[in-house]
Amino acid sequence: MPSPSTSLATQRPDIAESFMEFDLAMDMAGYVSTKVFPVVEVQKQSGNFGKIPLEQLLKKRETKRAPGGGYSRSEFTFDDAAYACEEHGAEEPVDDREAEMYAEYFDAEVVSGQRAMADVMRNAEKRVADAVFNTTTWTGGSLTTAITHEWDDAANAVPIDNVEAAVQAIYDNSGLWANALIVNRKVFRNLRVCDQIRDRVSSNGAGSSELQGLISVQQLAQAFDLEHIIVAGGSENTANEGQSASIGQLWSGEYAMVCKVANSNDFREPCIGRTFHWGADGSTIGGTVESYRDESVRSDIVRVRHDVDEIVLYPEAGHLLSNITT
Question: What is the pTM of this model?
């Protein structure tokens, strides 16, 4: 049976509001897609936009003014780029009989909404992870480096040297200073026990008693001299239906990305990428929750959806490190 149009579905803010603890759990799981690709709200489902070439931002011009003369004026040229938001969504049926059977134990609508939300957000996270840890986009010596000593080799790894070399490469390519390191949680835990990291944290003022504990994200950021350490979590079962589970990480432990991420919603701020979101059809970036009735199966159908396009804007604003984990 075809799903009804959005106009026939009922918005369910009551279910969405019940997701507060669930949202916290998702955040704790390490979903970072909108930190890596901050959101840009767009007025149309698809369209063209002008991307300022990085060399235009650094263009040299004369600034001296003669008496009676005007001031130097500059005009940007733009590279043509395009976005096309696609709708992503998931539905969960809430069978009338099952809802009554288990009403004493849980709210079936809320649980169904959470399941649908998890699927939508997991796929959004996967799309950004695949776009960032991408050896097709980042290829060649100026954009990617295979490090010599993996970061799970605590005694020999030199992650500070690796990241600094990447920061310098980004600056040479683009004139931008990187402000972020993106790794998955397993790599983050390996970094905390690297001798080079512990020596740097100690030299920054941490005593031996603190080093016996866990090095924090903030201490790691200070050690790398970066504003953001973005620790990505989230797992997926890549096995087909009916097969034994095969659990993998959404963000691979084989890679680490050093890059410039946006600190504002100003689209003119150069950064590695953005998430374009179109809300005119009722979408919200975190997922619109709605429901409709399907009498053929005596069920209420809970649906979660959003309309997005995730785009790498400036590959030069990133440097991909590989061979991170043995």
Answer: 0.87
